[in-house]
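Table S2 (continued). Query chain:
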Amino acid sequence: MAAISEIIRSESDRTVSFGDYTQKEKKKADNFSHAGNVYKVRTFAEITKLEKNDMFVYESVPGTAVSHFAEDENGVSFTAEGPADAQVTLGLKENTTYRIFIDDNEVGAMSTGISGKLSLSLALTEGEKKVNVRI
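Corresponding output:
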């Protein structure tokens, strides 16, 4: 899934897929409408970043390709792949504890602070990872 020629796209299951870590130079897509929201994506080998309605949602260093990204009031879920292990930061609810699942295995719980940001590491050199972060 590394190359999404559109940089971001809507999927038939009402999720979005975005990012292309194979790009050597920054690529971006602004004003992408999906399910009543407006998304902005910036992606290339070094970073992938997603904003929704001008609010931070997702960032990975180095860049990743993300498929079937879904969010609701209880958290987010997505599948990520990339050429190297990645640090992923998610924009979630402030001062909330989330349970983190990677490939359906619970790996622990983490709390957000007043910024609502939660960071986790993904071992992407082992292949794509399914991530589920839930209250």
